[in-house]
Amino acid sequence: MHPLITELGLDGDPKLLHERRGTTFFKVGDTALKITDGLMAGREGEVLAALDAGHYIAHGTHGQGTWLTMRWIDGTSLWDALEPAHRGDDAPATRRSILTAAAEAAEALADLHAAGWTHGDLQPDHIVFESGAVRIIDLACAQGPVPVPFYVHHGGLAHTTAPEIAALILNTTDHITTTPEADVWSLSASLFWSWTRTPPTDYRDPQASRPDLLADTAAARRHDLATVRPWQFPAFETALHASLAPDPEQRPTARSLAGFLRAALTTGAFE
Ligand SMILES: Nc1ncnc2c1ncn2[C@@H]1O[C@H](COP(=O)(O)OP(=O)(O)O)[C@@H](O)[C@H]1O
Ligand SMILES: [Mg+2]
Question: pLDDT confidence of 146, banded at 50, 70, 90?
Fold first, then answer.
């Protein structure tokens, strides 16, 4: 057992969920505990506190590292939520559930942007549907109006990195400023990937190294949806196409993406 669990007085049988790249994650009773070797868990705690996030509990330092506690979110990730749709059940109820999940995720992202923050590493596991709320999690890389501990940001998961951010990652070692437009691309990439189980970039070699994958994204080598979709879904495909525009200025905002998806739901034209 990790000494922090006792120090923090967390109650319950600790379960080690994962340990990767300097991050250790426990579930202890109904508390999530993230411990990082460096400043990132504490940084995330400061972001969650600044956002007044409902699931935030506390954060602090531990030797050279930091920790963060959150209420355990009992929900379904975007990846899992779209799995039944991927399996090919093309029915009105399935279409409605995809559009609803996408609209709710876009609304949650629009709220984050309205608060002045960008996420910087949106991916299918970072959007979680809880009954009555959508949680955008893993805000370790978020950038916003409140000063939080600095680190040199150099991008997130390759599959969901926007083309202009991919180009920056490849062309500079400088700190990268994230943008709402890049988050919209990442959200749509997450929706595309979760529905089709194929990331949006048509990689020359999907097994290639990170720089090669990013180079393909920067070159806007995007899959034609018609070749990877499980079935046709014009309303959803239109939304994905618009928000995966290579030019960030051509993309809808998260709020207008949400509006488009809600309008499709209201008219029922997708059925
Ligand atoms: N508060 C929480 N409640 C429930 N599960 C969580 C919570 N925070 C994270 N998780 C789960 O742990 C996984 C990893 O969390 P994340 O914050 O992305 O950590 P990492 O920094 O290691 O990527 C998430 O994909 C999610 O499944
Ligand atoms: Mg994560």
Answer: very high
Given 21, 42, 71, which residue is the final one in a domain?
71
pLDDT tens sequence across 82-98: 999 999 778 999 999 99
> Which of 43, 70, 138, 186 to mutate to test ligand 1, by most ligand atoms within 8 A of the CB atom?
138
User: Domain containing 238: what range?
Assistant: 76-266
Number of structural domains, the chain? 2
Tokens of 146: 């409140």
Distance 266 CA to ligand 1 centre (A): 33
Say if residue 209's pLDDT is above 80: yes
Residue whose C-alpha is closest to residue 29's, from 74, 72, 68, 70 = 72
| Whether the model pTM is above 0.85 | yes
Domain stops at, among 46, 71, 96: 71
Strands across the sheet containing 65-71: 14-20, 23-28, 31-36, 65-71, 56-62
Q: CATH number for the domain including 145?
A: 1.10.510.10
